[in-house]
Every structure is written in C-alpha cells, then in structure tokens.
Specification:
The complex is a heterodimer of chains A (about 350) and B (about 280). Chain A has about 350 residues and is mainly alpha-helical. Chain A folds into 2 domains: about 30 residues; about 300 residues, ABC transporter involved in vitamin B12 uptake, BtuC, CATH 1.10.3470. Chain A is about 70% helix and about 5% strand. The two termini of chain A are about 15 Å apart. Classes of the chains: A mainly alpha (about 350), B alpha/beta (about 280).
Chain lengths: ~350, ~280
C-alpha cells in the first residue's frame, strides 16, 4: 500500500546498486536514526539509556562482528567473548601506556589487537571447516580466558585481577569513568556503532564481501573464480575480530566500568552467537534484531509483572523470563530458520505486493 | 548423429571475422598420469587444445574426463607429465592461479553460490578484475562504487547475452536447473577466460534447453573467440559442436581427431558398446 516502489524508476546502475533502492526504506532508516539520536537521549531516562540502549548497541556491534565471520564467510566461531576480551584488555593497556591520547582513538585502536589475535586463531580455518573449526575457536576462548587471568601485566598487576576504567575525557567532556553521564556514553557508543555498521555494509556489498560469501557458499568454485582462500578467510577473521574487539572495549569502558575475565567467558560467546542465529545469518539488520530479542526482551519480560502491579518475586520473574525466551527462540527458529531478518524481508515483500499474493 | 558435418579444425578460421586463429596451440597436456593411491585415474595422456577451437573430451563413465579437467585447472596435481598453457609449462598450480592465468570452468553438478543472486554470482566472476583496496571498499562511495558500476556494465552484457535478465535479482538456489547451468556459464564468462572448461553443460536438460545451451556455446566460441574444452555425453551435441574430439576410456586415450574420424574408430565403438568376450 504505502510501501511500494511504483513510480520509482532507476535509470542508472548507481541508483540500482544503492543499499536502500526504495525511497520508503531510506525514510525508514532516517526515522530510526532520528529516534536513536534525538528522541531516545532526550526522552529516555538514565536507566533506559544505561542499562538497555548502551548494552544493546554494544551487543549489536559484537553480533555484526560475528555475523561477518559466520553469516557472511561461513566460518563458525565460538571465540567471540574472548575476542571482545582482547579488545577490552588492549584498550585498558593502551589507556595505561598512553594516558594522554583521546579515549576514542584507543577504543578504535584496540580492535586491531583483537584483529591480530583473531587472524592467528583463524589460521586453522584454512584446513578445517564447520564444527571442527568451531572447536578450535573454542580453544581460543579458553586460551585467552587463561591469559586474562595468568598474565598479570594485562590488568596492571591489580590485586583484584580486574580492570577498572579511569575517567577519561574526549574533547573536554568526560566520556568514561564515574563522572561521565549516560547520555555522553550513549552518544559515543551510538556514533561508533552507526559508523562501523555503515562500514560493514559497504565492505559486504563490495568485492571483499562477495569473496566472503563465495567462500561460504562454495569454496571450490570460489577458488576457481580466483579467490585466495587464505585472503578471504583471514580478512573475515580480522574484520570480525576487529568489530568484536571494539565491542569489548566499549562494553568495559562505556557500560560496565570495570571488568574481569568473567565478563568475557563462553556464555558471552554463546549469547552473541544466538543473536546472530536468531537475528539472521548474513544480515546486518538481523544483528540488531537478534540483540534486541536476546538482550532487551528478557529485561522487558522481567519487569513486566512489576509494571502491571503483580508481585511475584524476583526469582519467579526470572524463571518465567527464561521460559518465555526459550520458547520464543524455538518458535522463531521453527517458523523461520533463517532468522528474524528473513521474516522482516518476507513481510516487506508481502507489503510490496499487497493486496495481491504475488508480485 | 551426424546431422551437420563441420569442416576440420584447420580450416575454421577462414569463415571468421573475429581474427581468432585456429591452429595455434593454447594448452598442451603431455604424458600426464594421475593416481589416487593405487587407482590410476589418468594414464599417460597427451593431447592439445588449439586456440579458438571447441575441443570435446568424451568417454564412458569413469573414463577420467572430469579428473582431466581437474588437472587442467589445478585441483589435482598429476604425478607425472606436464601441462603447458600459452607456452608456459606450469608446475603445481593452485585453482586460483589457473583462474588468474585465464582458465574458467563450469561444474558437472552446478556449483553456484546458492545464497547469492544471479547478479552477484556473475559479479563474483569479476573478482579477479577488481582491485580497489580495502580502504576504498570501506567507504564505498568513490573509487569502489565506480569500479562496481564499471563491472556491473560488463556483467549486464553477459546477462543480456545469456537471456537471464528476468532472474537478475533472484537467489540462484531457487532457480530451475537449466537456468542454474546458464548462470554458471555466465559466471565463467565473466572471467573473460582464454580457455573455458565445460563439464557436462547439458546434463539433465531437455531438448529445448540443450539447443539453447548449444547456441550459447557456439556464440561464445565464435563471438568472443573463447577456446572451449567440453565434456558431454550427448553424442549429437558433441559431434555438432566439436572441432576435434579426444576419447578417454579407463584413464587412457583411445582416439583423438575430428568427429568423423572418432565416430569411425573401432576402439571408440567398442568402448561405448562393449565387445563380446
């Protein structure tokens, strides 16, 4: 009805190759960005921004990272949590060693350390595939967790073994630490996530992204088209780990404020993997949908009885939440194994053809 | 079987206006032997493929035809013998190096990138010709987009040529088999290869689809001057399309020549029909 491309003719390839070829999609994206950048910071309260929006965006970024590797390049990884940890610990070390440099630069640089580590643990992917590769990334997870505990240099020989975020300013405004307002941190996270999502979408639709998908869909044929598996797989590992690393650095510096090895354990890896699977493999918007379902929905369900005035106790609420989330995951996967993004896409197709069943 | 008789390969260039000289050697396989453990898949085979010709490789099941193609484009490395492509003898070559040197191929069982659209599949064939670096790719607008558009134009020409414009945006996994084969041919053409290896391009097709595919193969050969090596089981197609035919049986070469010679060869007839014991 209102979502239809009738009358929108493309007369050159430039217009045809646009990410959002339909005008309504562009408007939709604009509306979402306005909500994220204007309405949420000025109308949301601190709890909403601090405990929901910031972690949601950070997990979305991590999910994009994993999606690049698993959804686009077809390499299953269970080391996401550890790669996020590498980002967080390197950001911490960078801040310690170069305290005068802008914290934003540190956050963006820390991803490169994660990328290097990701490449090293990505090397086995040249020989092994699928579940077997997942096991080697599991090794990365455990090895790095071990390193975060045993290499005391990483946390500056703290007695607690935790990394604590000092107050850091960027352009004269406190960005991290206790004195930074949730709104400042929100804007920093939003800016980085939007920018990196845009970069990811650019890379994915270009030559490099295509080479990842070629490897994913048919590696033999990809090689025959001149793709070097080494380059394609390791570039996917590098970029994926970079995103996870930045997400990890943001998680500690913009959300938690302090972290120890537990913050990056295998559960985080699984959580991000679920976001990717439920959101949709090989879809950027799916990463946000998956993160919303896995991260935001439990918070909403948990607080729902309280809001409507039911007093059922925290433990019961927690159990009910787990039940509901668990059954929702199963339901979504049965209805659409390709994830929420695919459902969204089908919905849009239907809307385009409406009221006719076929276009 | 011999509805149309083609002139022998040597005379083919007379009728051409594309300037492709038939007769110059493009690829030569010399005494190649390929073993898998104790099994000899290819035994001491030599033949050549000349520039601009359609060279058919035929033989009963298990004769080693596909193995031969796999040797040519670097999936398998023969234990003995050499392969000379464009005058260069190559040692162990990886498939992507073969692609870079100008060899493209289609597969017996369609090996498309099923998750991608027809357009992206054919664009993927342009990968080797695209070289904008990661930084420009990150920002897309600018050099990376110009490059995409430049190659898109070429890809659209191939799409027009193969008459698949209507499925441009469809994921190839959902296409009917005949169209998938066509998309795969398009993807190979996107490499602009010197030598195109086609592994049973007409397997499982009906007559109409076979005629379409034959037309495309002839057009590719004559319009673009692409040299073609073709594996096919449909003898009618082989005899009509091929300039020269090499026949394999149990890994050995049993005949080599123009279609009429091969058809008349007693050894070939025996290999296909069997001999009384």
């Amino acid at each position: 009805m209102f979502y239809r491309e009738a009358g929108q003719f493309k007369t050159n390839y430039k217009a045809d190759q646009a990410i959002f070829p339909i005008l309504q999609d562009k408007i939709g994206l604009g509306v979402i960005l306005v909500i994220a950048a204007v309405i949420i910071p000025f109308f949301g309260n601190d709890f909403f921004i601090n405990s929901i929006m910031i972690p949601f965006l950070i997990f979305s970024l991590a999910a994009i990272g994993l999606n690049i590797l698993t959804g686009y390049c077809g390499q299953l990884s269970l080391g996401t949590g550890a790669f996020m940890g590498v980002g967080a610990y390197s950001c911490y070390k960078l801040v310690t060693i170069f305290p005068d440099v802008n914290i934003l630069i540190h956050v963006l640089l820390s991803g490169f350390f994660a990328a290097i580590v990701g490449c090293v643990f990505g090397l086995p992917s040249l020989r092994i595939k699928g579940l077997y590769l997942a096991i080697t990334t599991l090794a990365a997870q455990f090895f790095l967790e071990w390193a975060f505990i045993r290499v005391a240099w990483l946390y500056n020989y703290n007695d607690s073994g935790a990394i604590e975020v000092p107050t850091k300013t960027a352009f004269g405004i406190a960005v991290t630490g206790a004195s930074a307002t949730p709104m400042t941190r929100y804007f920093v996270v939003l800016g980085i996530v939007v920018a990196l999502t845009w970069v990811a979408s650019n890379v994915i639709r270009g030559r490099i992204g295509r080479s990842w998908m070629m490897i994913r869909d048919m590696d033999i044929a990809a090689e025959l088209m001149g793709i070097k598996p080494l380059n394609a797989k390791l570039s996917a590992f590098a970029m994926s780990s970079y995103y996870c690393g930045v997400a990890g650095a943001l998680m500690v510096f913009m959300w938690l404020g302090a972290a120890e090895v537990e913050s990056f354990n295998i559960n985080v890896s699984f959580q991000v993997l679920f976001m990717v699977i439920i959101g949709g493999m090989g879809s950027l918007i799916g990463c946000f949908m998956g993160a919303a379902l896995i991260f935001i929905l439990p918070i909403v369900i948990r607080s729902a009885p309280e809001i409507v005035g039911l007093n059922i106790g925290a433990a019961t609420a927690e159990h009910i939440t787990q039940l509901i989330i668990g059954s929702l995951i199963i339901l979504f996967l049965i209805v659409e194994p390709h994830g929420l993004a695919r459902m969204w896409q089908i919905g849009k197709e239907k809307l385009r053809n409406w009221p006719f069943p076929y276009g | 079987m011999n509805a149309h008789t083609k002139p022998p390969a040597m005379n083919l260039n007379s009728g051409r206006d594309d300037g492709v000289a038939v007769g110059e050697e493009l690829l030569s396989v010399d005494n190649v032997t390929l073993r898998f453990g104790g099994v000899t898949a290819i035994e001491d085979i030599s033949f050549d493929i000349r520039k601009g010709e359609v060279r058919a490789i035929i033989g009963p099941n298990g004769a080693g035809k596909t193995s031969m193609l796999n040797v040519i484009n670097g999936f398998y490395h023969p234990q003995e013998g050499t392969i000379r492509f464009r005058g260069e003898t190559r040692t162990k070559m990886k498939p992507y190096e073969a692609a870079a040197s100008g060899i493209a191929r289609t597969f017996q069982n369609v090996a498309l990138f099923t998750g991608m659209s027809t357009l992206d599949n054919i664009m993927s064939g342009r990968s080797l010709k695209m070289n904008k670096n990661f930084i420009t790719q990150m920002f897309y607008y600018g050099p990376a987009r110009d490059e995409e558009i430049e190659h898109r134009r070429r890809v659209e020409e191939i799409i027009d040529f193969l008459e698949i414009a209507h499925i441009r945006r469809q994921p190839v996994g959902k296409l009917p088999y005949g169209l998938q084969k066509r998309v795969e041919l398009g993807r190979a053409l996107a490499l602009e290869p010197d030598l195109l290896l086609l592994d049973e391009p007409m397997a499982g097709m009906n007559l109409e689809e076979k005629e379409d595919m034959s037309r495309f193969i002839i057009d590719v050969n004559q319009q673009f001057g692409t040299t073609i090596a073709l594996i096919e089981h449909d003898m009618g197609v082989v005899m009509d399309l091929a300039d020269r035919v090499v026949v394999l049986d149990y890994g050995k070469k049993i005949a080599d020549g123009i279609p009429e010679e091969v058809q008349a060869s007693q050894e070939v007839i025996d290999a296909y029909l069997g001999v009384p014991h």
